[in-house]
Design brief:
Strand content: 5-15%
Number of strands: 4
Order of helices and strands: HEHHHHHHEEE
Shape: globular
Largest sheet: 2 strands, antiparallel
């Protein structure tokens, strides 16, 4: 990555491998990608929610049974950028982090927890910044469809 951008960036932590995640977060599996949807959407679209979750599971199982190069070859070229070797390496490191069953471990969930629901700010989401101040997080815009983050 640094080579690609001519040294203009500095990687602070690369946590795509279990050993690196353990060194940085204290856990082997850190949930960096999740499928999420609003509860009201899931309640009103149970078949779609089930099919979407099954499709994500099938994609994960397929990716885990193929090489990083095979996975990269199946993804849109527009996602790869100019450096296919770098893209393939990113996929290889990402595949190492996938759990066998796609579930987040309790330790990983706790390491990724960045907040909690409280009554102090009804209808708003706030975060505590690294310097200790608190700020309001903007609401997502557009239709709140299920998304992979």
């Amino acid at each position: 990555m640094q080579k690609r951008f001519g040294g203009a960036i500095r990687i602070l932590a690369d946590t795509r491998a279990p050993a690196d995640a353990r060194a940085f977060y204290g856990v082997d599996q850190y949930p960096g990608t999740v499928l999420m949807a609003r509860a009201d959407w899931m309640s009103s679209h149970p078949d779609e929610a089930r099919r979407l979750a099954c499709a994500v599971g099938q994609a994960r199982r397929w990716a885990q049974s193929h090489t990083a190069a095979e996975v990269a070859a199946r993804l849109p070229k527009s996602h790869r950028g100019d450096d296919e070797a770098l893209y393939t390496e990113v996929i290889r490191r990402t595949l190492e982090m996938l759990t066998p069953d796609g579930r987040i471990t309790a330790e990983g969930a706790e390491a990724a927890r960045i907040g909690e629901v409280v009554a102090d700010h009804a209808g708003m989401v706030t975060i505590r910044t690294i310097v200790g101040s608190e700020r309001i997080v903007d609401m997502l815009v557009g239709e709140q469809l299920p998304r992979i983050c």
